[in-house]
Amino acid sequence: MSAATIFGLCAAAAVGLGLYGLITNPQPLRKILAFNLLGSGVFLLFGVVARRGAAAGFGGDPVPQALVITGIVVAFSATALAVALLLRLFQASGSATLRTPASAGTDPADA
Amino acid sequence: MIPHPAPVLDAATSGGFLLVLAIVVPLASVLLAFAAGGRHVERIALGTMPFGLAIAAAIVVTMRQAGAPLVYLLGGWAPPLGLVLHADGLSAVMMAVTAVVIGAIGVFARADFTTPPGVIEARAPFAFWILLLVIWSALNTVFLAGDLFTLYVALELLTFAAVPLVSLDGRAETLQAALRYLMFALFGSVLYLAGTALLYGAYGTLDIVLLSQRVHAGPATLVAAALMTVGLLAKTALFPLHLWLPPAHAGAPAAGSAVLSALVVKGSFFIVVRLWFDVMPALPGFAATQLLAGLGAAAIVFGSVVALRQERLKLLIAYSTLAQIGYLFLMFPLAFSAGSALLESNGALTGGLLQAISHATAKAAMFMSAGLIYAALGHDRITALGGIARALPMSVLAFALGGIALIGVPPSGAYLAKELLLHAAAGTEQWWWVVVIQVGGIFTSGYLLLVLAHALAPADAPVTLRVPVSRIGEAAALALALCSLLLGLLPWQAYLPVPAGTASNPLTLEALSSALWPLLAGGVVAILLGRWGDRLARVPFAEVAVAWVGPARRAALALGRVLERADGTLRQWPAAGVSLLVVTIALGMAMLAGR
Question: Which burial class, exposed, middle or buried, applies to B547 when counting CB atoms under 10 A from its CB (0-12, 13-18, 19+)?
Fold first, then answer.
């Protein structure tokens, strides 16, 4: 089994675990973590893809590395934004849940 | 028309720097606003708007003169290593519309988001103006980007700027809505990113033009296409992936809702169009286009019926957005040519895009006028709107004109879009989409008439306005509604493919009368499904009418309850997540079957 295959399988496992957590876990913080796991799987996939350039005599294709770094920056900002929203939600309501209220939205005037 | 996709992109064209300006100018203003801070932010944002409009106008005019797409190579590096910005006819019209809508929203929002006198810096206005500029820049990047990874970054920028707009007032419900929106959008963007990784692995490039030359229907490509499409659908809130949309609109400020509904969802929709028409026109095949439009048809029925059952005006408009998003996806099967097995850039594409443009202008106007009504009354319960037409005639007029433009009354843009789609449906012999298109128009008339019937009814008690309504805000809403109503008169064939013979004069008696019967049918739908409070009982001969209509209304209400309950279930997180996976798999299978 080549290194690329092992990395590919690891990426698939991370994506699967992330997907499962993101869909089934009701707690927002765990959803955020699951999103990060899912994202890591995708970045690893990009990393596996980068070995493609090795065929042409290079050590690897540098473009996916650049894409992964950009992707990590984006995922980091997304996580920061999500955690900040979660903290504010906890401060404002005393609980942190994403469960929908009975109606799609209450009239602020009634609240 | 401007040929698209652009043939070869290895050299910058004259006027290419305009594309850079379109992205950089709003972002530069953001930096300036951060540096200046406080009450300068509003002035900087409003001051940027004429420049942005001028840049969009310059791009439109330069393209018309050159008769070719505008191209700019970043740093002079050609693809595959370099990145390219390119503007074709689609980008140009979308950028122009974005500039107009952002400008109108900016003028409208001045009343709500002015830093109060005596305060150095207020959080909500500061955030709003900065987010508005970032959204503008991100949208321009979406319209101009020439490779799939830049599109990913632009899409993320768009989401990150749109999410805080939902929770500007900081109440717990809106924070929760924002978090739901963010998490679901991130789910979508990860799927999109996984698709780009697979495509890069298969073809070694993400440039749109190079990919379109290299792409072939291998397993990796099919999986990538399904993942990317569904990721984008989640961000566009196509049924059944709409869990974030209604709560996001429920608590967002009127200007924020207008931006979200008119522009933000169009960004991801535009990338779907790029992906399917420019990158892989041969890949989807018949079955996948039918599936996509089938989801659109379901969105029209679900969104419209649930919209008619809403108590609040704002949520009615939000669910109407859900239905109108479905309408946008009807163009895919109509653009599919059975002969060449390709998605052709033909009249159906123009129809879909024109529908998006009309929706952007009309829906922004409707959200603005709903916001004004809410501010003036302190509530927006539809059954308690009586007398508002007398108190706020301009706002109600803007709402009505926006709705009329959406129905497709000539000479609106939606009228031209409907003509083009119907023409394409006749050309490709797909009568079932004709039915869906007409049903969509009837439902739209239904909820417009429901709101107007309540708004035009006499008041039970004299209407007292809680706050004076901003005349400038009313004028902005009215201007956008008029803009949507007159869109059909513009020379679209210079930028978009319009087949000969479809762009008939929209001001004939025949065209006007064809718009009349959906209105009548919509009236029936509104009577059967709408919330009427005690209004129906006060109509003369009500007993006779109730005896006639009663059983049909009971049946319609039962259907409405079933759809509302289904909507409630689909908007739960696990159900939405599972639907996301199911749609991905179904789309992949459909593409596999279509080969």
Answer: exposed
